[in-house]
Design brief:
Radius of gyration: 22 Å
Strand order of the largest sheet: 1-2-3-4
Number of strands: 4
Largest sheet: 4 strands, antiparallel
Strand content: 25-35%
Shape: elongated
Distance between the termini: 59 Å
């Protein structure tokens, strides 16, 4: 009888702990992510300008096939109008990209950009240079690695959880020569805490959800048969 009472007490405690954890974790995926744009932080420290397109390290975005020259099909134009109001400067810029790259699908691009965002911030939190090198342009990669090295030199580690992306919108686009550039604003929720070499928290809160806004620019050469886009610039909005 005594053993049964003890068992019941432990079961009740387990349920209570589970419910409290669930209230804190919410929709987390369990993957570690930083709560800020590391390249933007490095940029502020060094006084450097935004990254410029490189020639290597591309980000694959789903839904992008081999680009085809010629006017954009009507279906792409209809989809474009859902992303940017007809007659707006953004709509006009996206139409310019469509005029030279019939494979460009704004909605498919956004889906791929969301996936790239998660992969990149996850790799940064883990200090995974190998993964980052395959996802970033040269200049952006160097900025991310500099931030990781600086963190490691202080013996700091990031404990971060990606809650989710609330919204991702195309906010700017341009066709510069044969290079298409598309800028996306990501609004996400992250939980993060930075600990020093002794395990003490020096920044962030492991129990608080932070709203984060990042603005990232992707680019690709529309004359290339390579359908991948490069992450060429990042910015964090305070």
């Amino acid at each position: 009888m005594f053993d049964d009472v003890i068992t019941i007490i432990f079961l009740v405690l387990a349920v209570v702990i589970f419910l409290r954890l669930r209230s804190v974790l919410g929709r987390r995926t369990g993957h570690e992510r930083p709560p800020f744009d590391p390249y933007s932080s490095q940029e502020r420290e060094n006084g450097a300008g935004p990254a410029t397109p490189g020639d290597d390290n591309v980000i694959p975005l789903p839904g992008q096939g081999t680009p085809q020259p010629g006017p954009a099909p009507a279906t792409s134009s209809a989809t474009l109008d859902k992303v940017a109001p007809e007659g707006s400067a953004l709509n006009d810029a996206l139409r310019q990209i469509l005029s030279v790259d019939r494979s460009f699908d704004p909605q498919g691009f956004l889906q791929g950009a969301r996936g790239a965002y998660e992969m990149i911030v996850s790799a940064f939190a883990a200090g995974d240079r190998k993964t980052l090198k395959n996802l970033l342009s040269k200049d952006v990669y160097e900025g991310f690695v500099a931030a990781i090295s600086d963190r490691e030199s202080r013996g700091e580690t990031i404990e971060s959880t990606f809650v989710g992306i609330d919204k991702a919108d195309i906010v700017e686009a341009a066709l510069k020569g044969s290079t298409a550039q598309v800028t996306v604003r990501f609004r996400s929720e992250l939980i993060s805490a930075t600990r020093d070499r002794d395990g003490a928290i020096v920044d962030g809160d492991p129990n608080a959800v932070s709203d984060v806004t990042d603005i990232w620019t992707f680019a690709r050469d529309t004359t290339s048969r390579d359908p991948n886009w490069r992450l060429v610039a990042t910015e964090s909005v305070e």
